[in-house]
Amino acid sequence: MAKDQYLIQSVSRASAIIEALSNHNTMGVTEIGKFLGLH
Question: Structural domain tally of the chain?
Fold first, then answer.
């Protein structure tokens, strides 16, 4: 993967985390990871 693709992936994940927290503000790190499908 090119450096730009890693940056785009990071920004995309950050956006998804912010969205998850805005919808479920009591989620912890483990719940966010499960919600986003991250391991």
Answer: 1
Whether the pTM exceeds 0.90: the reply is no
Type of residue numbered 21: L
For residues 29 and 1, what is the distance between their CA atoms, to the nearest angstrom?
A: 26
Structure tokens at 26: 């009591």
The DSSP code sequence of 5-37 is: HHHHHHHHHHHHHHHHHHH-TT--HHHHHHHHT
User: Which domain range does residue 22 map to?
Assistant: 3-36
Evaluate whether 28 touches 12 at the Cβ level (below 8 Å): no
For 3-29, what is each residue's pLDDT tens digit?
A: 788 889 999 999 998 998 898 888 888
